[in-house]
Amino acid sequence: MSPxxxxxTLHILNKAPGHSRFITxxxxxxxxxxxxxxxxxxxAASDADTKLPxxxxxLGADIEARGLSDAMPVEKQIDHQQLVRLTEQYARIISW
Amino acid sequence: xxxxxxxxxxxxxxxxxxxxxxxxxxxAAFDQPAALLFIGAGVAWLRRAQNAAGIGxxxxxxxxxxxPLFGIEQLFAxxxxxxxxxxxxDSRVKGITMAGSVNHLLEQYDHVVFAG
Lengths: 96, 116
Known about the structure:
Mean pLDDT of chain B: 90
Shape of chain A: globular
Strand content of chain A: 15-25%
Mean pLDDT of chain A: 93
Distance between the termini of chain B: 22 Å
Strand order of the largest sheet of chain B: 4-3-2-1-5
Helix content of chain A: 25-40%
Strand order of the largest sheet of chain A: 4-3-2-1-5
CATH topology of chain B: Hypothetical Protein Ychn, Chain: A
CATH superfamily of chain A: DsrEFH-like
CATH class of chain B: Alpha Beta
CATH architecture of chain A: 3-Layer(aba) Sandwich
CATH architecture of chain B: 3-Layer(aba) Sandwich
Largest interface: A-B, 21 and 27 residues
Largest sheet of chain B: 5 strands, parallel
CATH topology of chain A: Hypothetical Protein Ychn, Chain: A
Helix content of chain B: 25-40%
Number of helices of chain A: 3
Oligomer: heterodimer
CATH superfamily of chain B: DsrEFH-like
Radius of gyration of chain B: 13 Å
CATH class of chain A: Alpha Beta
Order of helices and strands of chain B: EHEHEHEHE
Low-confidence stretches of chain B: none
């Protein structure tokens, strides 16, 4: 029997802060949801104007590429395998 | 004829910015004075200690540091965007001129081109 799926929604966001879809995504988050920052969205880690939810994680390779390694705690940085495993745990996924 | 190329999109997520940088270098190669202005999320280009090997790309910092050699007259950055995305001046690459008013800067150039 497969494990019960997480009741919340997994949000995968690759838009930079200020992009309309970045704003819409953050406005749609509930406290049951998990936000994953990838590509340009990782800039939120150093954005004075963005308040990220507690459980937010980000792709480490994108964080490092943009020189943001010290702007995001290591335990909140995931690799691609971990992202795939996350997608297996949620019934509902939105790729923004 | 002077040209200002404006990069308003974050680095690495799209190829738009790199194409704009190539355009700037091409202009300079033909002795057409060109300058670059980074605004909004585009100022993220100017963060030091980038390492793009993990995403299979060349680090932009090296391209930018070559700009003066190629004859790119100046690199400008929008001050308010830097205060938002790069609050610590030490986290910014060297040789950037802060632009307090983007509109005022746009008026100084014959041609203004936005990347993408």
